[in-house]
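Researcher: I'd like a candidate sequence for this fold, 436 residues long. If you have to choose between options at a position, lean toward the conservative one.
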């Protein structure tokens, strides 16, 4: 079947995803053993002979994937994406085309199977990350490549390497993932660069296969681009291998994203909790949960999703700092998730004291800083306000009728009570019902 873009099909398959807004990324593999991040092979130019032995050691006795899924669920996340294979070439599943896989370690487990089953059990949408780059396969360019571990070692020249043979391997591995693990909701390919873009990966052929096997799957844009670049859907000239969403990496587009014809583009900001994706034992620079809550709100207010990463260690444990962050975000999401799910930009300027998100006629005012006394609701016609409640507990928040506000007859000032400290110091959300 030759895949062709149709706006109608596109919008149908994207519906759950733009509702969901908040997901979990999981980067996990052999690199958890050296524990210096998932790029360790490339950064330290580690050859196969030195990296392969980790295979014999990988035995994450504490790995309980259901507990990962529980943590995602309790944080309010609605989808999950696990690295089935990262750039190092190690597979977390039982690929028939390589021995470099988790079923071949002392663990002897197919983690993709455990994961897909656990995610579904917890009602989470199932995503798989797959690196189209492979630093272990002999037919992938070595010497002179931009990031291969052997890139500056002339002893690893590319004579006799047959990239087409690599592509056969890669396509076959993706076929396995699309065939053996039930319905996949999302595929996250990573990534195109230099001359290796689009058809260099035999992308049309690949996408025809994927879309035939998994007709509803949502796919990122990294067969065309990487964390930089928007892809052909943004140009309104979708290739057969266009991405369904844009993937800004560890950044949030300053004012959201639109395609060349002005339509809002679907995007997902991928975000690390510290400064690495894969487990890094010395990276303690975790972002506070309060900051990450505000970043999630920022994404939604600009029409995007946020996928927040965890990097389990070599024992298969999500680091404690990450679990604490997830729990704290979950406490906020449990009370305020309505201001996130299915919400998007409010069509109003960012208010001085916080941010707006909106779903239909319901406006959410995320208040980060209190005013002196009642709080102005800028840009909203006072007469259009039907009611204002604190989202977390449903408490009514009346409009001020005080004489001190009488000089501003058009501005709604909402009275949050006598306490100058906001009930939620991170983000106190007001749910404002507007007249249809
Ligand atoms: C990247 C990286 C990487 C990470 C990722 C997540 O470009 O190479 O290690 O998996 O994208 O967005």
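Model: Candidate sequence:
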């Amino acid at each position: 079947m030759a895949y062709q873009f149709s706006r109608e099909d596109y919008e149908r398959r994207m519906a759950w995803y733009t509702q969901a807004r908040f997901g979990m990324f999981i980067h996990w593999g052999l690199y958890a053993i050296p524990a210096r991040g998932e790029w360790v092979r490339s950064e330290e130019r580690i050859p196969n002979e030195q990296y392969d032995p980790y295979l014999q050691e990988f035995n994450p006795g504490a790995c309980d994937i259901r507990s990962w899924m529980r943590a995602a669920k309790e944080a309010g996340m609605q989808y999950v994406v696990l690295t089935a294979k990262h750039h190092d070439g190690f597979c977390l599943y039982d690929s028939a085309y390589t021995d470099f896989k988790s079923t071949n370690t002392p663990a002897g487990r197919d983690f993709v199977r455990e994961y897909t089953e656990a995610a579904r059990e917890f009602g989470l949408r199932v995503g798989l990350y797959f690196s189209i780059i492979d630093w272990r396969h002999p037919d992938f360019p070595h010497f002179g490549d931009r990031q291969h571990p052997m890139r500056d070692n002339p002893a690893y020249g590319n004579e006799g390497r047959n990239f087409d043979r690599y592509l056969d391997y890669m396509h076959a591995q993706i076929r396995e993932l699309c065939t053996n693990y039930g319905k996949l909701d999302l595929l996250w390919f990573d990534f195109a660069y230099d001359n290796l873009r689009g058809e260099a990966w035999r992308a049309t052929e690949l996408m025809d296969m994927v879309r035939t096997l998994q007709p509803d799957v949502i796919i990122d844009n990294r067969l065309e681009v990487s964390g930089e670049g928007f892809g052909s859907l943004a140009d309104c000239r979708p290739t057969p291998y266009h991405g369904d969403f844009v993937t800004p990496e560890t950044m949030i587009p300053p004012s959201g994203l639109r395609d060349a014809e002005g339509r809002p583009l679907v995007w997902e900001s991928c975000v690390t909790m510290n400064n690495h994706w894969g487990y890094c034992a010395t990276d303690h620079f975790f972002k506070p949960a309060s900051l990450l809550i505000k970043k999630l709100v920022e994404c939604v207010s600009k029409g995007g999703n946020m996928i927040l990463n965890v990097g389990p260690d070599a024992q298969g444990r999500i680091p404690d700092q990450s679990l604490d962050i997830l729990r704290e975000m979950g406490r906020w999401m449990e009370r305020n998730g309505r201001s996130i799910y299915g919400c998007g930009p409010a069509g109003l300027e960012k208010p001085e004291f916080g941010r707006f998100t909106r779903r239909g006629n319901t406006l959410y005012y995320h208040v980060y800083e209190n005013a002196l006394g009642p709080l102005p609701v800028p840009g909203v016609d006072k007469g259009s306000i039907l009611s204002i409640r604190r989202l977390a507990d449903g408490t009514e928040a009346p409009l001020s009728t005080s004489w001190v506000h009488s000089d501003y007859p058009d501005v709604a000032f909402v009275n949050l009570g006598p306490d100058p400290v906001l009930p939620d110091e991170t983000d106190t959300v007001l749910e404002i019902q507007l007249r249809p």
